Amino acid sequence: MERKYLLGNEAIAHACVESGVDFVSGYPGTPSSEVIDVLRTQPDRSYYLEWSVNEKVALENALAAAWCGIRALCTMKHVGLNVAADPLMTSAYTGVTGGLVIMSADDPFAHSSQNEQDTRCFAKFARVPCLDPASVQEAHDMIPSAFRLSEEFGLPVIFRPTTRICHSKGDVALGEVVPSTRKGEFHKDPRQYVVIPAHTRILHKKLNEKQPAIKKRLVELGYNQFEIRGKTAVIASGIAASYVQELLPDGVSFMKIGAYPIDEEWLGAFVNKHEKVLVIEELAPEVEEVVRQVAGCVPVFGKKNGYGSYEGELSPPAVAAILVKAGLLPANPFPSVDPVQNLPLRPPILCAGCLHRSAAYAIKKVFKDSIYPSDIGCYTLGLQMGVVDTTICMGASITVASGIAHSGDPRDILCTIGDSTFLHTGIQGLLNAVYNGANMTVVILDNRITAMTGHQPNPNTGQTACGVESPHVSLDALCRACGVHFVESVDPFDITGMMHVLEGAKKRKGVKVIIAKQMCVISARRAGVKRGRYQVDADACTGCGNCVRFGCPAIVFADEKAQINDLCSGCAVCVQICPVGAIGREGKR
Amino acid sequence: MNGSFDILMVGIGGQGTILASNILGEACLIEGRHVKGAETHGMAQRGGSVESHIRIDGLFGPLIPPGQADLMISFDLLEALRYSHYLKKEGRLVVNNHLVLPTSVYTQKLVAPTEDEIIAALKKHTLCLLDADKMASDAGSPLSQNVVMLGAASGSIPLKPESLLEAVRRLVPKKTVEINTKAFEMGREFGGICR
């Protein structure tokens, strides 16, 4: 058996290939994106693969593949499952014939997310099995089981790793790659696939009838297991189980939960052999609630009575603190240490030469004192420049803008959205804003790539996930087709030009769209675009600081003068900002 | 308990911490040892502060608790100070003598400690300070800075230098094997003196 040091998502991707996956779809989202990024760059792919335009689209495609009897994987981040919730809920009724694994990666502590929702709740809501790995190795090993489980019960299976699994690494024992020999074939069966009321009522009953057998099977598979060592027990799930194993004292029983729904009878038998039970899990009290249902007179300690938090992620010291509080450890083996205080933060920032920074600069100049709904992408970092007043979920910049526009606030409204987000769920909002007569300006920040999650292509890139050329989508024509009359394309590196167009938009009524086009500076670098660097003429520089306040990491301040370092990618925006003309091309002064 | 040798590697997104952590992982595989790790991906990477945890012989979780790291390798002075509370009292610190001021210093007028102040604060640990940028350039490419850092730290890492060097050869781009081998050896030599 081969052993490799892999990122969780790489191990998951490998396990999909080992399982002979036939069909892969998804929408990028941290921490899930690398699974498809690994799968799409494999040589000799024997599976179909796509980046879909959003998670609903991805899941419906994968569901159809599974209806054709082949194995399908659909990946997304936890909030993507909200977008895909509509097909998810009913796919549990229709079921599948080929295995369908839905990977929805949770992000406790919201490292890169807008919330900390728990996918296990969604699985319970939809009544589909959910697998919750505790380590990178287990994440790998669960994938073949997930496909088999899906086929055995004819149900989609949710696979729910968290950030600390997806972006953890470990030495992983890999299995053999077995290319699939399946051929998809759709068998017509309206009673299964046409969910009219008469059919769906029966399908709902069938779904509920499957539940007891699923619970038994999950215990047999060994993902829920225990070891009795004493009169006190700790029950832990997901990555928390790994932290508990690191700390658990001798003589304390341990139960690890890695799969849902939990068999209550099996759980109850374990709990009732103990005098006290502590439940440790991240986010929602999913395990704890079931433990409390079956515990009878056995005292249960968990977040519901103050042993653990509903928010954030666990860590070895946090788990140790819970064990100490519950009297299972005499003292925390990781005494708290204070970090050095008052250091300037180093939050993520827009790259040197990023189009979003220059677009934000021009917007701020023309649309002073306006309201700026924004969206999800690198440009959310425009918060640091004061041009992000709201973000809630994908596509909600345009809808929040129209909602405010109809609410009576007299200020101008300008919203920003990236090209990938616009194609994800922005178009409907634009259509709606035009239809209902909102007064607002939409700036589409068009870098032709889904940058933040790692440069995945989208329909606006002109290339599929597998690198095949695709028909070019015209954002301009799309917006005009939605009924927008004012659609202008601008180069955000041309500050004067962009300001001029923004002024034109500001004077008009209705929905105005400005498409700010520039390549993502990272994709430009990879594509070999060279613009040449700029430098500051120290004699001409007055040290006014306008350029450093622009926030470009290539501009620093030393000895009362600005300097440009080697991060400069040649966008030349600072040349336009400098009031005394002190910045010019390198070597030309 | 874990019984692992815990290394925290910190720096700024884009400085090559991920490759360096992969090299350590590969060296563990070469020696047939278990290894666990965790790192920063996604949005947090964009020029922000990043951390990479590596637990040689780690069996369970990937995270190193604060106050428990045996070794810290930092690509930047300020980041070394920011994460220094992760080190054990007797832990060793290998730091690139280079400071990139965060843009928050300019845009929000925050005050950063000076290089001298940072170095003075770091000296409460066993400190090895090196000019990895210059050494990497001398080895043939500024991009080999991460391998210089690994070389300098290698004397404190419970892995054979041959395993680390073999891992370097396996993981760096083919064209740069020679440069990176030199970078590792230059780092290792310096690390031996600055102990």
Write up what this structure looks like.
The complex is a heterodimer of chains A (589) and B (195). Chain A is globular, with a radius of gyration of 27 Å. Chain A has 4 domains: 3-220, Thiamin diphosphate (ThDP)-binding fold, Pyr/PP domains (Rossmann fold); 225-325, 3-Layer(aba) Sandwich (Rossmann fold), CATH 3.40.50.920; 355-526, Thiamin diphosphate (ThDP)-binding fold, Pyr/PP domains (Rossmann fold), CATH 3.40.50; 534-585, Alpha-Beta Plaits. The N and C termini of chain A lie far apart (62 Å). In chain A, strand 15 (414-418), helix 17 (419-435) and strand 16 (440-446) form a beta-alpha-beta unit. In chain A, helix 1 packs across helix 2 (34-40), helix 15 (355-366) crosses helix 19 and helix 16 (396-405) runs parallel beside helix 17. A 7-stranded mixed beta sheet of chain A has the order 3-2-4-5-7-6-12, sandwiched between helices. In chain A, strands 9-11-10-13-14 form a 5-stranded mixed beta sheet, sandwiched between helices. Chain A is α/β, with parallel strands linked by helices and 589 residues long. With 195 residues, chain B is of the alpha/beta class. Chain B has a single domain, classed as Pyruvate-ferredoxin Oxidoreductase, domain 3 (3-Layer(aba) Sandwich), CATH 3.40.920.10. Chain B has 8 helices and 6 strands. In chain B, helix 5 packs across helix 6. Chain B is globular, with a radius of gyration of 16 Å. Chain B starts with a strand and ends with a helix. Classes of the chains: A alpha/beta (589), B alpha/beta (195). The interface between A and B is large, with 59 and 57 residues.
